[in-house]
Amino acid sequence: MKAAVVVFPGSNCDRDLAVAFEQAGCEVSMVWHKDSALPEGVDIVGVPGGFSYGDYLRCGAIAAQSPICKAVVEHTNRGGYAIGVCNGFQILTETGVLPGALLRNAGLKYICRTVDLQVATSNSVFTEGYKAGDVIGVPIAHHDGNYFADAETVAMLEDQDRVAFRYVDNPNGSIADIAGILSENRRVLGMMPHPERAADEGHGGTDGAAVFRALAGLVTAA
Amino acid sequence: MQEPAITPELIANHGLKPEEYDLILEIIGREPTFTELGIFSAMWNEHCSYKSSKKWLRTLPTDGPQVICGPGENAGIVDIGDGDAVVFKMESHNHPSYIEPYQGAATGVGGILRDVFTMGARPIASMNALSFGEPSHHKTRQLVNGVVEGIGGYGNCFGVPCVGGEVRFHPAYNGNCLVNAFAAGLAKTDGIFYSAASGVGMPVVYLGAKTGRDGVGGATMASAEFDDTIEEKRPTVQVGDPFTEKRLMEATLELMQTGAVISIQDMGAAGLTCSAVEMGDKGGLGVRLDLENVPQREVDMTAYEMMLSESQERMLMVLKPELEAEAKAVFEKWDLDFAIVGETIAEDRFLIMHNGEVKADLPLSKLSSSAPEYDRPWIETPAPEALTDADVPTIDPIDGLKALISSPNYAGKQWVYEQYDTTVMGDTARRPGAGSGIVRVHGTDKQLAFTSDVTPRYVKANPFEGGKQAVAEAYRNLTAVGAKPLATTDNLNFGNPEKPEIMGQFVGAIKGIGEAVAALDVPIVSGNVSLYNETDGQGILPTPTIGAVGLIAADEEPIIGEARDGHIALLIGDTIGHLGQSALLAEVFNREDGDAPTVDLAAEKRNGEFIRANRDLIKACTDLGDGGLALAAFEMAEGAGVGVQIDAGDTPTLFGEDQARYLVACNFDQAEGLMMAAGQAGVTVTTVGKFGGDTVKIGGSEAPLAELSEIFRSSFAAAVA
């Protein structure tokens, strides 16, 4: 499978995400934020963590307007796969690819620690390596990870089984303990915790590796 | 614009003494212009010139086969084999952080990161050592919150993992907090960049963010004591922009790949002045600058302001002219300024032009080489009286332990380090919280360990032994994770050096540090001196922070296991029960008396080598420091979530702070192996208890682990959050 990792000038988890894709057997290319097209034949796009354009405004708001993000939106509209982690999740909500928004953490502080996540559904390429109900330890590292959506949207996400992960002990005030969600076609995952930081025994364990594992064998019709 | 006339008051406001002004007159043979006065003040303040400390810094051992570059450059460089090098330094941002904690701390982090990537190294780890006043002081809470948020705000955005540090509280820091920031980066030994300019007529290029009026006079401010005018000093603090710094790093590292860089220097304290003078001075060249070409973000900036601005995220480079187009393309890609602002010249001149007008014309080499250097009078700190047996208190072991872990000095620091990104870059093998942090050398099987240490109480009581102890503790912390200590950086924080007793602390500590780094083969490769940490005549505790780096080779395993039910607790090293200047005396009895513990450097070396050589027999290891055996055993048990039983019940054995000691957890067979190895190595190994159960039992007293754990984990936030 061919993966592309978007690089904004303030991305700082781009290499980490590329390493996780590579370890899962993907062929990875890095895509510059000023590019207006993805490389030919890309199956999955990774939108990495970091501070895209500094995020001095609402996180991800400027990134959502970048040339590459237009290409990412087109890719997902065509049914292409994408994963947005942390700042990448914020960007995917800002582009409208995923519903809701990420607000400042309820405690108003940046939090970096490994948290327990409950896998809420195994029905997606990202979560099929788990059983629903599994509890995995994955690091979070964010200031604005408090997921919010209106009641109808949350009900819709629940009805359509689109909550991918929930916090066992909610660290940031996210509504319904939501840590990650899927798009309607289940091919886009956005999550605040960093599975790419939990995909290596020597660094944070391997609880997050399964998020990437199933990708290698995938070839999309997009 | 009319420049102000040079008056004695103006000279004094620039931090120059009358005799220093006379030296300026002698050097240039005329009255300086306003801009020239500013340049001298920027170059000759304590912060930039090290005029009080130079004489003593020269005595420090800085060399060794592992050292590629010692002090004098932006950071020190140490060989870690296979063409890899680790580049590191620690630097203070004390004065600005007290005035404006968020920005002061943030720009401290920014400055140290720039020092590292200026040399061609990508930063891979950071630490910070913080000292604050007593928790009940009215400024402490605001300072702790602001400083921690500032460090996090900058480092998290930049994207470098924080892997260690220290936080302490003491009334002596009520009027001056300390913010010491450490950064380390990785470079290839054939891809290192230095600051010495070479070649005449080479373009001098300005890179990065635009210049504003922020931070004008910052370095001069940081070279004076505080008094009640502190609020007026706020404009001397710079404002950080980590997003720009991140781009500057990426652009700089990419630029270096083009081969266009002859030499490069970051703009830190005293900005354009200091960086230009340093590049010229080291290369034996003059420099001409045309200030109208400097990218500016404010209108009508004067030559004086541009030369003294400490706007952040800027670099100065000498460029190979034939590669200008390639170099410029890199900076355009990252949307950063790239402007040719001058050139190197053959004459020994620092010529500053602004719109065709000469604003300064000084002999460049004299700006640093003729800077005043003082042999300040000093008096040796009198030897403290040792505690007598009658002075030594006794305490119930669990009560003593509870008192320590409920103090923010010894409580868990999760509240602090959870505000820092500790796992970005995907290579953190050990996060902060217990001894050294560990980062993998990306793409290799090597790992680097980092620690920062000092016990200011000891240094105050006995600067020589205290200086030795700071180095020895750093050596032990690296050893405890199985790393071979390689080299050190020193961040020397002291009060007013014009007072002989303060200067005596400085001299004593340097002598101790020098003896220890020589004995333990951990040369000082970089560092920073921060003096005048005083407010209204009250100085801080002498705080020579030692940052240290160790290597875990590709074929070595780190010691990062945890104590388990059934493990034996072994003490490595000799116990006398030294309670002078101990954490127990300070926290429980509010006493800071007695002498600091003596550091036997031969024992440090012997015991350290023993731990590293026998790593296969050790599951978990920690050094013994503040709080002695009792606190070390508790911390090891708490971190592993298992109970512990320590047999001894007497106060000196449990809370004494004898040096050169480690606590080890291992199984029975390993314990036997260690005992045998110890006999051959001449190392003392004693069984002191065992791990298991869900209580902490020390001597005859006992408490549930869960209860102590709750105290340990909540007390820091309760005190200052």
From TrEMBL, chain A:
<dbReference type="InterPro" id="IPR029062">
    <property type="entry name" value="Class_I_gatase-like"/>
</dbReference>
<comment type="subunit">
    <text>Part of the FGAM synthase complex composed of 1 PurL, 1 PurQ and 2 PurS subunits.</text>
</comment>
<dbReference type="InterPro" id="IPR010075">
    <property type="entry name" value="PRibForGlyAmidine_synth_PurQ"/>
</dbReference>
<keyword id="KW-0963">Cytoplasm</keyword>
<comment type="pathway">
    <text>Purine metabolism; IMP biosynthesis via de novo pathway; 5-amino-1-(5-phospho-D-ribosyl)imidazole from N(2)-formyl-N(1)-(5-phospho-D-ribosyl)glycinamide: step 1/2.</text>
</comment>
<keyword id="KW-0436">Ligase</keyword>
<dbReference type="GO" id="GO:0006189">
    <property type="term" value="P:'de novo' IMP biosynthetic process"/>
</dbReference>
<keyword id="KW-0315">Glutamine amidotransferase</keyword>
<dbReference type="GO" id="GO:0005524">
    <property type="term" value="F:ATP binding"/>
</dbReference>
<dbReference type="GO" id="GO:0004642">
    <property type="term" value="F:phosphoribosylformylglycinamidine synthase activity"/>
</dbReference>
<dbReference type="GO" id="GO:0005737">
    <property type="term" value="C:cytoplasm"/>
</dbReference>
<protein>
    <recommendedName>
        <fullName>Phosphoribosylformylglycinamidine synthase subunit PurQ</fullName>
        <ecNumber>6.3.5.3</ecNumber>
        <ecNumber>3.5.1.2</ecNumber>
    </recommendedName>
</protein>
<dbReference type="Pfam" id="PF13507">
    <property type="entry name" value="GATase_5"/>
</dbReference>
<keyword id="KW-0378">Hydrolase</keyword>
<feature type="active site">
    <location>
        <position position="194"/>
    </location>
</feature>
<dbReference type="GO" id="GO:0004359">
    <property type="term" value="F:glutaminase activity"/>
</dbReference>
<feature type="active site">
    <location>
        <position position="196"/>
    </location>
</feature>
<feature type="active site" description="Nucleophile">
    <location>
        <position position="86"/>
    </location>
</feature>
<keyword id="KW-0658">Purine biosynthesis</keyword>
<keyword id="KW-0067">ATP-binding</keyword>
<comment type="function">
    <text>Part of the phosphoribosylformylglycinamidine synthase complex involved in the purines biosynthetic pathway. Catalyzes the ATP-dependent conversion of formylglycinamide ribonucleotide (FGAR) and glutamine to yield formylglycinamidine ribonucleotide (FGAM) and glutamate. The FGAM synthase complex is composed of three subunits. PurQ produces an ammonia molecule by converting glutamine to glutamate. PurL transfers the ammonia molecule to FGAR to form FGAM in an ATP-dependent manner.</text>
</comment>
<keyword id="KW-0547">Nucleotide-binding</keyword>
Automatic annotation (TrEMBL), chain B:
<comment type="subunit">
    <text>Monomer. Part of the FGAM synthase complex composed of 1 PurL, 1 PurQ and 2 PurS subunits.</text>
</comment>
<feature type="binding site">
    <location>
        <position position="490"/>
    </location>
    <ligand>
        <name>ATP</name>
    </ligand>
</feature>
<feature type="binding site">
    <location>
        <position position="266"/>
    </location>
    <ligand>
        <name>Mg(2+) 2</name>
    </ligand>
</feature>
<feature type="domain" description="PurM-like N-terminal">
    <location>
        <begin position="437"/>
        <end position="552"/>
    </location>
</feature>
<dbReference type="Pfam" id="PF18072">
    <property type="entry name" value="FGAR-AT_linker"/>
</dbReference>
<feature type="binding site">
    <location>
        <position position="114"/>
    </location>
    <ligand>
        <name>substrate</name>
    </ligand>
</feature>
<feature type="domain" description="Phosphoribosylformylglycinamidine synthase linker">
    <location>
        <begin position="13"/>
        <end position="51"/>
    </location>
</feature>
<feature type="domain" description="PurM-like C-terminal">
    <location>
        <begin position="200"/>
        <end position="350"/>
    </location>
</feature>
<keyword id="KW-0658">Purine biosynthesis</keyword>
<comment type="similarity">
    <text>Belongs to the FGAMS family.</text>
</comment>
<dbReference type="InterPro" id="IPR041609">
    <property type="entry name" value="PurL_linker"/>
</dbReference>
<protein>
    <recommendedName>
        <fullName>Phosphoribosylformylglycinamidine synthase subunit PurL</fullName>
        <ecNumber>6.3.5.3</ecNumber>
    </recommendedName>
</protein>
<keyword id="KW-0460">Magnesium</keyword>
<feature type="binding site">
    <location>
        <position position="530"/>
    </location>
    <ligand>
        <name>substrate</name>
    </ligand>
</feature>
<dbReference type="GO" id="GO:0000287">
    <property type="term" value="F:magnesium ion binding"/>
</dbReference>
<keyword id="KW-0436">Ligase</keyword>
<feature type="binding site">
    <location>
        <position position="238"/>
    </location>
    <ligand>
        <name>substrate</name>
    </ligand>
</feature>
<dbReference type="InterPro" id="IPR036676">
    <property type="entry name" value="PurM-like_C_sf"/>
</dbReference>
<feature type="binding site">
    <location>
        <position position="91"/>
    </location>
    <ligand>
        <name>Mg(2+) 1</name>
    </ligand>
</feature>
<feature type="domain" description="PurM-like C-terminal">
    <location>
        <begin position="565"/>
        <end position="694"/>
    </location>
</feature>
<feature type="active site" description="Proton acceptor">
    <location>
        <position position="93"/>
    </location>
</feature>
<feature type="binding site">
    <location>
        <position position="89"/>
    </location>
    <ligand>
        <name>ATP</name>
    </ligand>
</feature>
